[in-house]
From TrEMBL:
Principal place of residence: membrane
Protein name stated in the entry: Inorganic phosphate transporter
Localisation: Membrane
Disordered: annotated segments: 192-221
Keyword terms, alphabetized: Membrane, Transmembrane, Transmembrane helix, Transport
Species this protein is from: Kribbibacterium absianum
Transmembrane segments: 50-72, 138-155, 161-183
Membrane topology, as annotated: Multi-pass membrane protein
This protein's record includes keyword Cell inner membrane: no
Length: 221
């Protein structure tokens, strides 16, 4: 059964990847295309240019490559304990929901859908759910909206000053992205430790003294 579901996960994982690009990449494509039409660089009523599709797809792929292992660890080990059948069910449910939403033209968060699917499979299996991790994820989602709005307003004000403001905004975004990537490399999570409960070694027990290791009684005061 485990082997069968493991092979099935190859298909469902591909469907999740397809739904990720279908939903998340289309949001960015739509914004860029709308901007090009609003500035007169593209005729009204036309679809996204090929270079826009390529850049958005490349950005999604690079983001997943740089931060995907942490997301995999959080969803696969942080929320609840998943077995292969539960992983198959979570991926199938996530892909179905996101692809159906994309077909209907609805925008949603792939991360939220996948998180809900993982929690649902954990509850269905009857295993404990780490609600502390779920709470931190919820707080992060709530903070995202005002933070994105504030950063967007600042970037817009800077871009309105002219080409110099646009260049400064682009450089600042590149520096912030590089800093975040550098932080992630300090405590890396990759294919070698993604399945560990404590991949960064933060929960390792403190080293015992030589007396304790050898069994020598400690003098009582």
């Amino acid at each position: 059964m485990e082997n069968g579901f493991r092979h099935g996960q190859t298909i469902t994982a591909c469907l999740v990847a397809l739904s990720h690009g279908t939903n998340d990449a289309q949001k960015t494509m739509g914004i860029i295309t709308l901007t090009l039409i609003a500035t007169g660089a593209q005729p009204s009523g036309t679809g996204p240019e090929l270079w826009v599709v390529a850049i958005c797809g490349l950005a999604i792929a690079m983001g997943t490559y740089m931060g995907g292992w942490r997301v995999i660890h959080t969803l696969g080990k942080g929320l609840t304990d998943l077995n292969t059948p539960q992983g198959f069910a979570a991926e199938a449910a996530s892909a179905t929901a996101v692809l159906a939403s994309s077909h209907l033209g609805f925008a949603l968060s792939t991360t939220q859908v996948c998180s809900g699917s993982v929690i649902g499979t954990g509850l269905g299996r009857g295993v404990p759910v780490n609600w502390g991790v779920a709470k931190r994820m919820l707080v992060a989602w709530l903070v995202t909206f005002p933070a994105a709005a504030g950063m967007g307003a600042v970037a817009c004000c800077a871009a309105k000053t002219g080409m110099a403001g646009t260049v400064v905004t682009a450089v600042a975004c590149a520096l912030v992205s590089g800093f975040i990537f550098w932080l992630s490399r300090k405590n890396p999570i990759d294919a070698t430790n993604v399945t560990e409960d404590d991949p960064q070694g933060k929960l390792q027990p403190k080293p015992q003294s030589a007396a304790v290791r050898s069994g020598t009684p400690t003098p009582q005061m």
